[in-house]
Design brief:
FGGY_N; kinase; six-stranded mixed sheet; Nucleotidyltransferase, domain 5; single chain; alpha+beta; 460 residues; transferase; 2 domains; 14 helices; FGGY_Carb_Kinase; carbohydrate metabolism; 32% helix
Length: 460
């Protein structure tokens, strides 16, 4: 493939494997959008909140996505897509056999299965888990899902693990490897060493061969195979950009240390970049508040990641109100903004719970008449604000308080969301970009096209 660096006709693509939808954005080198597409994430739901995805459904959705994005791009430019970077959700992944075939579905990060297995890990694992991995132990972490699969009869020994972005990279023609920021969220890595935690692997009946080679975000993964992708993508260089929220945070360059980046999709993630691990004791303290300290997509850096399930609750409010399209959401936004931030009902008229990162079940208690969807939506935003305030207090005990904040993600365009978050986040600005993660992935793809790629965390 001819070196396209410096050629204005060079195109790059970013894929975002999100919890609500899969997105693909194609841009030129300057970051101008050329084509885009999205398809629903192909979850299948079961009893008790169980949610999973088969590898076949995932790949069918990815092929549909790539085809649609390539078609839209071709309307604007005949140039080939020279590089593709894949970002996506963490915790959800697939166990593969020696041929790269998935042997079980991927369980959603918000699927409650695995909670019993996490509670049944040996006492030493439970005691050290947060300090070693930087994660609170619960159903969300991948090791809990792996233990659940094991207990359902899925053989793990002799097989390997891939997070969803690496699995898709492999299906496109890339090599088998694991990106560090995604794998950092499995519960299988020691954050201080960056290597697999042997005791955790042993508790699952595994050894280090379960994990393919660990690589930094943005590392070369190979090339897209002709015949699998549209002709305009054949031979495109492949990489894995990393965990979606972190990719969004670095979309336009490095984050200042005193800044909050808030990425609000199905999960709402508040993060801060740090130059080095905070250490075992600090990780245990932070985990008490469900705050993670894990590897960043910028090599050598770490992040504090605090999450609430605001987007999941807001989505369920919309669905309950019969709102299923953008116009309906926009109309609701207008209705919420017509109310004061506190609403017009008595303080105890609507009680909400469910935003904590270990919850996600929308509970509403309504004590009065006159409750509209706008009042409920506003009440959920206030409830999640209260949870975010607790997370900020816990972070501020470990680091100097942040002084600025940026709001991104699928919900960030709503005026009601911006108004609510300005109550708890300092000097808040909102991104005008609809696809922050996919855009960040395009910047990672662009770096592949240079023989001396700029370090992630700087603008390409």
């Amino acid at each position: 493939m001819a070196d396209p660096v410096g050629a204005p006709s060079c195109l790059v693509a970013g894929l975002d494997l999100g919890s609500t939808s899969l997105k693909m954005l194609v841009t030129d080198e300057a970051g101008t959008e050329v084509g885009a597409a999205q398809v629903p994430t192909p979850w299948r739901s079961g009893p008790g909140g169980s949610t999973e995805m088969t590898a076949e459904a995932l790949l069918e959705a990815v092929w549909s996505l790539i085809g649609a994005a390539a078609h839209e791009t071709a309307k604007v430019s005949p140039a080939p897509i020279a590089a593709v970077a894949i970002a996506g959700m963490a915790e959800t992944g697939l166990v593969i056999d020696a041929d790269g075939t998935a042997v079980a579905p991927g369980l959603a990060w918000f699927d409650p299965r695995g909670a019993g297995q996490a509670a049944a890990f040996p006492p030493g694992i439970r005691d050290e888990f947060a300090g070693r991995t930087g994660l609170p132990l619960g159903a969300q972490v991948s090791v809990a899902k792996l233990a659940w699969l094991r207990d359902q009869g899925v053989r793990l020994a002799g097989r390997r693990w891939l997070n969803l972005p690496e699995f898709v990279a492999g299906a496109l023609g890339g090599r088998t490897a694991l990106e560090l920021s995604l794998t950092s969220r499995t519960g299988l890595l020691d954050q201080d060493t960056g290597r697999p935690w042997p005791q955790m692997l042993d508790a699952l009946g595994l050894d280090e061969t379960f994990l393919p080679p660990l690589v930094d975000a943005g590392s070369p993964f190979g090339e897209a195979r002709a015949g699998i992708v549209p002709p305009s993508m054949a031979g495109a260089r492949l990489t894995v950009a990393g965990h979606d929220h972190l990719v969004a945070a670095e979309a336009t360059g490095g984050l200042p240390a005193d800044h909050y980046h808030v990425s609000m999709g199905t999960a709402e993630v508040l993060l801060r970049v740090i130059d080095a691990p905070l250490g075992y004791a600090a990780r245990r303290r932070l985990a008490d508040h469900l705050i993670n300290e894990v590897r960043h997509v910028v090599p050598g850096k770490h992040v504090l990641v605090a999450g609430v399930k605001t987007g999941l609750l807001l989505r369920r409010v919309l669905q309950t109100a019969g709102i299923h399209d953008r116009r309906g959401r926009d109309d609701l936004d207008v209705a919420v903004m017509a109310l004061p931030y506190e609403g017009l009902l008595p303080d105890d008229a609507i009680e909400v719970s469910g935003a904590r990162n270990d919850d996600g079940v929308l509970h509403l208690t309504v004590r009065t008449d006159g409750v509209s969807p706008a009042e409920v939506f506003g009440a959920v935003l206030r409830h999640s604000n209260a949870e975010i305030s607790l997370l900020i207090e816990a972070m501020d005990r470990e680091l100097a308080p942040a002084v600025t904040a940026t709001l991104t993600g699928g919900w960030a365009g709503m005026a009601a969301v911006q108004r609510a978050r300005s109550q708890v986040l300092p000097a808040l600005t909102a991104s005008a970009r609809d696809q922050e993660t996919a855009y960040g992935a395009t910047r990672s793809a662009l770096r592949l096209l240079s023989t001396t790629p700029s370090k992630i965390g700087t603008a390409p």
